[in-house]
Amino acid sequence: MRLLVIHGPNLNLLGTREPEIYGKATLDDINKMISEHAKNHEIEFFQSNIEGEIVNKIQEASQKKVDGIIINPAAYTHTSVAIRDAISASKIKTVEVHLSNVYQREEFRHKSLTAPVCVGQICGFGAKGYLLAVDALL
Ligand code: DQA
């Protein structure tokens, strides 16, 4: 299977960014964990702080015939109609992941614009959530 993992804004800061909420693993650590877990599969990692770049990447994934997307849209989860529309248009099975349990946090994090166009959402299990998302797609 060909998988694409997309990390949204500020996730490049993992490891030092609010570790009490997001854990101590860096983005590199998480990507390595995912690679090991999905070792017999082709997997591409992408991180951007820019909404339009994430939209472009999802559009490109359709052309490249990616089989599944794992996305943590981070703050864009709660605001981005553009990322939602890109996921919906791609027709690629997509799993949304959040490190933290967004439903235990501020009310503005309770609404996901992207989850309704994903096959499912995994949140609150830290970095392990990405491995659960791989299993779900496989
Ligand atoms: C997050 C939750 C979002 O609300 C937040 O904006 C993030 C990270 C998570 O992984 O828990 O940046 O997506």
Overview of the structural elements:
It contains five helices and five strands, in the order βααβαβαββα. With 138 residues, the protein is α/β, with parallel strands linked by helices. The protein has a single domain, classed as Dehydroquinase, class II (Rossmann fold, 3-Layer(aba) Sandwich), CATH 3.40.50. It has a five-stranded parallel beta sheet, with helices on both faces. The longest helix is centred in the middle third of the chain and has 13 residues, at 51-63. The relative contact order is 0.21. The model has no long low-confidence stretch (mean pLDDT 97). The structure holds 1,3,4-trihydroxy-5-OXO-cyclohexanecarboxylic acid. Residues 10, 72, 74-75, 77, 98-100, 102, 109 line the site of 1,3,4-trihydroxy-5-OXO-cyclohexanecarboxylic acid.
Provide the descriptors you would attach to this structure in a database record.
138 residues; alpha/beta; Rossmann fold; five-stranded parallel sheet; 5 helices
What is the CA–CA distance across the termini? 8 Å
CATH superfamily: Dehydroquinase, class II
- What is the CATH class designation? Alpha Beta
- The domain count comes to 1
CA gyration radius, whole angstroms = 14 Å
Strand-residue proportion:
15-25%
Task: Work out the oligomeric state of the chains in this entry.
Answer: single chain
N-to-C series of helices and strands:
EHHEHEHEEH
Give the uncertain stretches in residue-range form.
none
Main sheet strand line-up: 2-1-3-4-5
Shape: globular
